[in-house]
């Protein structure tokens, strides 16, 4: 394993895994791979950790193709050459004309398909490629739109099954991800889908960029703050 891989992406990923116990001995992990940079790097990184026996677990990629994806074969071959198998599940997506949030519907459907596959095939964890930027953006959206201090958790256990959702990229930012994917030469899958990201997320992204121009540590401080809450200095009413 090359040293730059350790510093650029494996160290922050291992920090998250170790801090939140994201990988436990004997885990069977299904990774949601969209073919985009984040989940591709996640899949590759978990493959490396497995290859070098850093943790004792099994890992398989799972891609839901709603008929919108381009260049899936070179992507899949890249991972197969690396010794990782990826299932491509084809499922046509039927969009209702009155659906005001198609991205949400699509994401719900995708999760449902993955969840069912995981349960039917003995996987106990599903890994998603949400990143540090997603955590900060979600924090901002909750604050601005819902007046709530909340973001994306690194691990969630389903109430109705033994399945856990894990997010090992929460300490990794887009700059490091882009650089890693480029250096690793992972072929990226593109999508024909016309639905752009939700407007509010775009606005919160540009707001973050504006704040970071003045306070470059902003995103890192949000990550730190989310596990450093001084409850006695909030408006939460504590037991007396
Ligand atoms: N078509 C898909 N098949 C399987 N998993 C998916 C698919 N699309 C998204 N996911 C999973 O859901 C996560 C969140 O989805 P989202 O669309 O927000 O991804 P993203 O931020 O654009 O990241 P990426 O660069 O991985 O596409 C992804 O990181 C991935 O793990």
Automatic annotation (TrEMBL):
Keywords: Transferase. Gene3D superfamilies: HUPs (3.40.50.620). InterPro entries: Rossmann-like_a/b/a_fold (IPR014729), TilS/TtcA_N (IPR011063), tRNA_thiolation_TtcA_Ctu1 (IPR035107). Residues 29-187 form the tRNA(Ile)-lysidine/2-thiocytidine synthase N-terminal domain. It comes from the Bacteria. The keyword Mitochondrion does not apply. This is tRNA 2-thiocytidine biosynthesis protein TtcA.
